[in-house]
Write a structure and sequence with these properties.
28% helix
Length: 69
């Protein structure tokens, strides 16, 4: 499947905490091959950041470790 079609068909998930932060949130979708996409929840037709499976793991580990505070 081509990437644009995969992104259009993806199931996007928004954090349950998004309602408490004034709507400033991102959405995440799981893609084929363990990849993930992230987009702005207020601009769903806009661009998405794509992460390979290893890059996603590193990113999530960094969040859990407080690397982005």
């Amino acid at each position: 499947m081509d990437l644009n079609r995969e992104l259009a068909a993806a199931t996007w998930t928004k954090s349950t905490r998004s309602a408490s932060n004034g709507g400033e949130c991102v959405e995440v979708a799981r893609l084929s091959g363990g990849r993930h996409a992230v987009r702005d929840s207020k601009n769903t037709a806009g661009p998405a950041l794509l992460f390979t499976a290893p890059a996603w793991t590193t990113f999530i580990d960094g969040i859990r470790n407080g690397d982005f505070d």
